[in-house]
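We modelled the chain as a single entity of 442 amino acids. Its sequence is:
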Amino acid sequence: MATTQLTADQVGDLTSALLSGGLPQDPAALVDLVDGLERMKSALCAIQGEATVAHDAARRKVESEQGVSSRRQGRGVAREIALARRESPHRGQTLLGLAKVLHHEMPHTRARLSDGTLNEFRAILLVRETACLTAEERAFVDEELCADPAALVGLGTRHLVARAKKLAYELDPAAVARRASNAEKDRHVSVRPAPDTMTYLTGLLPVAQGVSVHAALVRDADALRAKGDPRSRGQLMADLLVARVTGADLVDDAPPPMPVLVNLTMSDATLLGGHRPAEVGADGVAPELVPAEIARLLLGRALTSQVDALVRRLYVDHGGRLVAMTSKQRFYADGLAELVAQRDLGICRTPYCSAPVRHRDHVVPVSAGGATDADNGQGLCEACNLAKEVPGWRHEAVDDLRHAVETITPTGHRYRSTASPPMGWREPRWVRERPGVYTLVA
């Protein structure tokens, strides 16, 4: 008996049926529904994984027939999967790796994902914790942990990861030790936006160093509180961290000023008392939107503390498109590159990618007649710029109110990326004032 092939239309019909159905009134039935949907989500992830593996194989076959070297085959698959799943390219690579491992090396984990006993997140953790093992050893851990579905009932994520680590160490302690040693090479510090004009500063450190840093901050914060400092332990730890990294002095009841370069992007209206927001950022860090009053306060602090402040005024046309800006430098040699970066808010233009811009790229390559101008320019991270050259991928500039680029994958799927609106810009819309009377509001 032939197996019915799944299609996107069938999935769409199922989705429509689920969304059009009403919810039960009984609380127990509602919980059962949530449970069933959760199991379905896991099963769908398993099907997505199988489709990912099949697509990878099909893509490699096509590229092999086209004469692409085996080393270069399949290079764009992860990006295709990332776009289809509305994820970043890095996440796409993770999902592709997960699908391959579950398909080829961990069939029991794949089965538990299919029956809903495991979710995708926990499956990723199991794959990660067994990455240092051989295929045979990984299969042993897979069977020990996931062959019996009942063994996973009620098992928390931390317990599951602990069991996987314990089995991995028992099978190959030397491999686990090498992995821990190599992990130190990945130490880094990163920053990402937080609510209310704050940021998360994260340091990935070896465990001994990380614990010692935290212990020192706790110890000194408690000592200051014992002397009567009114700040909380968390506030003091944050202030101590800033002081020790930047050399700034602590200020009572407030975070200390920092002797750093302030890169503040704001319009003339904001600078002169308007309400449009501004942006604060730096090279390699995506800008963070801040209220106008906070922007003026930051600028005032920067000027009074003799810290270099870079004030960039953005100019937009009537459609809200960024068309020019003042340069941060005495000479305008990099003005076009800065314009492209500011228009893209310093974030890679690949759909769903959140990496900072590293390269200024031609949407249509120069070799294909592409011009070196703002309309044919886009900001990309290094990985996306390199992956853009994989055979079968195309980018096209789209005639839109704001700068838009379409990414066309080897399968013909199109994904549009539109430049974010300038600070404070709102799309014009018609507002109904009274019956039959509408006003265009920008």
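As a brief sanity check on the tokenised model: The chain has four domains: 21-185, 188-246, 262-312, 313-442. Residues 21-185 form one domain.
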